[in-house]
Structures are given as C-alpha cells and as structure tokens.
Amino acid sequence: MSDEIFLLPDVGEGLVEAEIVAWKVKEGDVVTLNQPLVDIETAKATVELPSPYAGVVLKLHGNVGDVMEVHKPLITFDVGGDASAPASAAPASAAPSTPSAPDPEAPTGAGREAVLVGYGVANEDGLATRTHRRKGSPPVSPPAPIAQTTRPGLAPRSTPPVRLYAKQHGLDLATLTGSGRDGLITRRDVEQALKPDSTPRPASTPVTGPTTTSHFVGRDIESWSTGPKEERIPVKGVLRSMSEAMVQSAFSAPHAAVWVRVDATRTVELLAGLKKHPNLANVRLSPLTIVALALCDAARHFPGLNSSFDAANSEVIVRRSVNLGIAADTPRGLIVPNIKGADELDLVGMATALNVLVDKARNGTTTPNEMIGTTLTITNVGPFGVDAAMPILPPGTGAILAVGQIAKSPWVIDDEIVVRHVVELALAFDHRQIDGAMASRVLSHVGAYLGDPATAMIAG
Hints:
Elements: E1 3-7, E2 17-23, E3 30-31, E4 36-41, E5 46-50, E6 55-60, E7 67-69, E8 73-78, H1 160-168, H2 187-194, H3 223-226, H4 237-252, E9 255-263, H5 265-274, H6 287-301, E10 307-310, E11 315-318, E12 324-326, E13 328-330, E14 333-335, E15 338-339, H7 347-363, E16 376-380, E17 399-403, E18 407-413, E19 416-430, H8 436-451, H9 453-459
Parallel strand pairs: 12-16, 16-17
Antiparallel strand pairs: 1-8, 2-4, 2-7, 3-6, 4-5, 6-8, 9-19, 10-11, 12-15, 13-14, 17-19, 18-19
C-alpha cells in the first residue's frame, strides 16, 4: 500500500480557507485521475476539485459545511494497488491514524501540494501526470487515455466547467457521447443536448449551486409562509467576503458621487441595427456593451479614473490597463468578476467577454483569478427596473459606475418635447484621488459616448 495525502490547494491567490460544499466521492470509492472529488466554496468562487491521483479513497478529512484551511489534509488515497480493484479492497478503516512522512526528494505527494488539472502541469490530453514516487515503491505509470465515454462505476469524461454546466441544467452526462478527443464530453455536446429539438432526456431537478443567501435575498417566496419564523444564515463564503469588503470600503474611502441623465436613443437605435447584421448574428449585444466601451474610453482620456489609493505608502496608483469589474447578482450572492485588459477590446470583443463573464457568474464557474485585480467597475441596476443607484466602491478601486434602466421619457430638443430613450448614470468615486471636476468630466464623457456611440467608436 502506498498512501498519498491530497492537501487542500490554494485555488486563488492568497486564499486561506474554503468550505466543503459537496463531496463527489466517499471512503472506499475507486477514483480515476481527474475524476471530480469535491465542490469547495472560497470567498471568491465555487470550485470543483478533480483528483490528482488514481486509486482508492481511504479517508475524507472533513464533512459538508466544514471550513478547511488551505494546505491541510483533504483526502487520503491508496495509490499503491490496482486502481480498478473493487472498492471493498480498501475499506475506510484502512486509513492510517497519522499521515505518512513525506519524501523530501519528491516534488509533490504526502504532506505536499498535489498537481491539479487546471492548476498545474498537464499533458496534451489534459490529464495531470504524477512524476514522483515514494522511496522503495515501484514506479507508477500515468494511466492510459480513456477511449470510452463512460465505464461502469466511473463518471463520464469531461472537464469540471462542463460537468458543472450540465449539472446546473439537469443533464446527466452519462446519456451523452463525447465528440472531443478520446470521447471527451465538451460544452458544445451539452448545449446540443439541451436544445429543444434534441433527444428527450429523463426529467431531473436543475442544480443551481450553493444558495447561501437564497432566503436572505428573497428568492424563495413560499418560505415566507412555510418556513421558520426566524432564520439564522451563517455569514461565510461569498456573503462574508461581500460584507467584509463593503464595510472596509465604506469606512476607509471617502465616497462621493455625481449623476447625469442621458439621451441614449442613438445607442438603442445602433444596437437594434447591429443585431440585424448577418455578421453579428451570433453576438449578444446589449446596452451594457456600449456602456463598458464608453467607460474604458473615459479611462483612456482621464487616466486618474483608473486608480487606487495606497494609504500605507501615501501614493496614488494610476494604471494604464483596465480590468473592468461587472457586479453580478448570483444565487450565491454578489460577486464582481472582471475582464482583464477591457480597454483593448472592440465592440464584438467586449460583447463576447461580457457574455462569458455573466454566464460564468450565473453558472457558478467564475474562477478566483477572474475575481482579483479589478481596477474599474460597472453595476447595472437597470434590469431590475431601477432608475439610479449610489454604489459602494469595491476595495482597491477608485470609481464605480451605476447604470439605471433605459426607458422612454419626455425630452426637450429645440424647445420641443419629444419621447426619447433616457438613462441615468451615477459615478461613485474615492475623493482622495479623484475630485469632483474629474468625476464630472468622466461622467459627461460617458454620457456623450452613449448619446452618439457610432461617432465615438470611430473617433476612438
């Protein structure tokens, strides 16, 4: 027997803990390389961890709901025997009471952080390979590629994001035949199966992922009459991260704000025309696309907008690249993933990046890397039927733009009252490095862009 201890990895940058959301395996199970093991929730995202080993699960070092420290034991495996042996060959009682001593010459292994698919080295088939062994144990060869879509007792072969996407739509991957290499089930396979004209599949309840704040934000209307008279919701994960960040920002940065109402009729007309263009048939365009382009353009004209205040060193940090954060309402709470280098994107690039970002946020597949490094933010309250908002700055940023709904409203043009598509914009900013004059110029720039986006894009 050769035991390997899988330590909880840092799936982001500097994360110190994660909550166990759901175990995908149990003690005694035989697992293959890259098979899903567990869903964990960090302060930034929910992540599905694949197995870095092929073998038998000896011990699970935590229960659902437990908060585990990073680099502490998560699972103990037996990788010394035949991984295809029945689960009864390694009962849970075989787990050692204390971890085996680590091999100081091994790059990974017991007592060290294992390589994960998506978080470390992988071969051309996308499978992590173990390049080490314990002293005195025979070499362990990497498993051969799985040529079949499914095998008895094993999960269908796919990537973690695809598995989560299928699960959230109630689709059993075992019913699909993968079109990828060696039978890999791809996102395209899942999307094809979800089309209305595809082969019917057994009904199942869609999984929406962890809903720590579902009752808190009022999504479950029936719970008002059928639920308990009082409910206590643990403040952890995304909810804790959001609450701590908002308190830190509200009481450490002097907030100020400016507002403006804008005639966005030409934006609405431009989008309507572009959606009819055959070359843009597969591009999901929205007013948010134009707003994002406008804010990035404003940052180029007024670099101080894209800044943060370093109180420790008494410095203002001005960045010449925009990591555009988009506040997203998800079943897990408010998160702000960002688009890296958003200022370099054109209309189609921005639309595509926004749609990918929003879809991943709603599906719970946002990665920790997409949650860090935000320099400028947009919060879009318009879809909720709200005209305006006074947002709180995400920590480490200098400004956030709130966008209300675009609605028909009376507007004066040449002393005549006409009906136009009007939107209200509010820019909240850190008054330590951005003064009212700059904020006003920025907001006027964004408003002018929305007032004539075609000309603004050509000029830019």
